[in-house]
From TrEMBL, chain A:
Keywords: FAD, Flavoprotein, Oxidoreductase. This is Acyl-CoA dehydrogenase. The keyword Oxidoreductase applies. Pfam families: Acyl-CoA_dh_1 (PF00441), Acyl-CoA_dh_M (PF02770), Acyl-CoA_dh_N (PF02771). Residues 233-376 form the Acyl-CoA dehydrogenase/oxidase C-terminal domain. SUPFAM superfamilies: Acyl-CoA dehydrogenase C-terminal domain-like, Acyl-CoA dehydrogenase NM domain-like.
From TrEMBL, chain B:
SUPFAM superfamilies: ACP-like. It holds the Pfam family PP-binding. The lineage of its organism: Bacteria, Bacillati, Actinomycetota, Actinomycetes, Streptosporangiales. Residues 1-78 form the Carrier domain. This is Acyl carrier protein. It comes from the Bacteria.
Length: 382, 82
């Protein structure tokens, strides 16, 4: 059966913020609460995203990608995050893996995976967290041993976004000398995917626990350099993931603002519209201010990425920390503005509230971020 | 190229660790400065500043131990070297 991408080529192309906003308003916003309740994103939307060229538009044109700069990619992810954090989360992990293969892959690995990742024919998931290790990557227990010129992988990964649906896993595991990144096709013997249902936020992001039992991998499964630089694959990939989460957090603030502005313009208390009450105005003005501030921090991180500046890594930590905490704060205020209505399914703010909390945890908890930011300040200032 | 590269790389490392006294021969790994974050920053800095791409087989610890070894790496990778 032909896919939507095949039957409608060239339509609904997302190339910038404006086209992303139009796509999101048409295909995501009206259905995001349903995705949240159903606990998954339907295949139809995944196909529409393929048709729109949304999966990895930053990949170089020579690989079939769109060559999109990272500032624009951030704007696109913000718009998707405004519509639905679960969908944006799928984009985030796919972006991370696609970038990692393009950046660190051998010519053979790039040839095999990058065009398919760019088109969205292959969807990817990033497998780092484990039952006993989250932000502390050094605590992972999954491991590989070399055997017959290849590798044998054992371990369990948990909280894997898009784990239920992804075709390709980028798995971080201990080697004899360090931590390595391994490309593991979903259909490899020994891979078992168990859905994790009914989670707090990003409920439609198809999270899974994935077990790897004596999974035999070829020598070409190892992505990037081994040895001391293996950590850079993880650092670089998480940096891009953090950037996407920061953009998505801006999207949550914007969604909270738009929902509250609309509600406050209709709802009255004692004959007065909410929007005319000073305490509500204060909350809305803080949302506007933080949305703009977070957006600027994200744009600066993106600009530094496009320029290849090393300072982008810390800029991204700062952007993610600021945007995610602001998102959690304003999503909470959005529920408050909606009152009891904010606690039900009739308005999107309860979903925003639950999703925003997740942003403070994923791709490095905010506690880890603050430690890193303080450490940088100590190096540079003290 | 390498003399200039050496100084620029030293400036970059010193800017990150202003409290440390580092010269061109010192092993920055032995000094305990390098974690995966700084290693990534070093790679990005070298690629951006000297307009080179460091291939995977050059991403070895010995190439990044000191300003001297990093400058030698830049020399090897620079297309304009004579």
């Amino acid at each position: 059966m032909a896919t939507l991408a095949e039957t409608a080529p060239g339509t609904l192309q997302v190339t910038d913020r404006k086209s992303a906003r139009a796509f999101v308003d048409t295909h995501i916003v009206p259905y995001a609460d349903a995705y949240d309740r159903q606990g998954r994103v339907p295949e139809e939307l995944l196909e529409r995203m393929t048709a729109a060229g949304l999966w990895a538009p930053f990949l170089p044109r020579e690989t079939g990608g769109g060559g999109m700069d990272l500032v624009t990619l951030g704007e696109v992810h913000e718009e998707v995050g405004r519509g639905c954090s679960s969908v944006r989360s799928l984009l985030t992990v796919h972006t991370m893996v696609s970038w990692a293969v393009q950046r660190w892959g051998s010519p053979a690995q790039r040839e095999r995976w990058v065009p398919a990742l760019g088109r969205g024919d292959v969807l990817a998931a990033f497998c780092l967290s484990e039952p006993g290790a989250g932000s502390d990557a050094s605590g992972i227990a999954s491991h590989v041993v070399e055997k017959n010129g290849g590798w044998v992988l054992n371990g369990v990964k948990k909280w894997i976004t898009n784990g239920q649906r992804a075709d390709l896993f980028l798995v971080f595991a201990r080697t004899a000398t360090s931590i390595g990144a391994f490309l593991v096709p979903r259909d490899s013997p020994g891979v078992e995917v168990t859905p994790i249902e009914d989670v707090l936020g990003t409920r439609a992001s198809m999270i899974a626990e994935i077990s790897f039992r004596d999974v035999a991998l070829g020598p070409d499964a190892l992505l990037g350099p081994s040895g001391f630089t293996a950590g850079m694959v993880l650092t670089g990939t998480l940096d891009l993931g953090r950037y996407s989460v920061a953009t998505g957090s801006v999207g949550i603030i914007q969604a909270a603002l738009e929902a509250c502005a609309a509600y406050a313009s209709r709802r009255t208390v004692g004959g007065t519209l909410l929007k005319d009450l000073p305490l509500i105005q204060a909350k809305l003005s803080d949302m506007v201010t933080d949305a703009r501030a977070a957006r600027l921090l994200v744009a600066e991180a993106g600009r530094l990425k496009d320029a290849g500046e090393a300072s982008t890594i810390m800029a991204t930590w700062v952007a993610k920390y600021f945007a995610s905490t602001a998102a959690a704060r304003h999503a909470s205020e959005a529920v408050q503005i909606h009152g009891a209505n904010g606690c039900g399914h009739d308005y999107p703010v309860a979903r925003l509230y639950r999703d925003a909390k997740v942003m403070e945890i994923i791709e490095g908890s905010n506690e880890i971020q603050r430690i890193t930011i303080a450490s940088q300040a100590e190096r540079e200032i003290i | 190229m390498s003399g200039n590269a050496k100084e620029q790389i030293l400036d970059f490392v010193r800017a990150r660790y202003p409290q440390a006294e580092i010269d061109e021969t010192q092993d920055i790994f032995a000094l305990g400065f390098v974690n995966s974050l700084f290693a990534m920053e070093l790679v990005m800095y070298i690629e951006k500043t000297f307009e080179v791409t460091i291939p995977n087989d050059e991403l070895k610890i010995d190439n990044f131990r000191s300003a001297n070894t990093m400058a030698e790496l830049v020399d090897r990778l620079s297309p304009a070297r004579v």
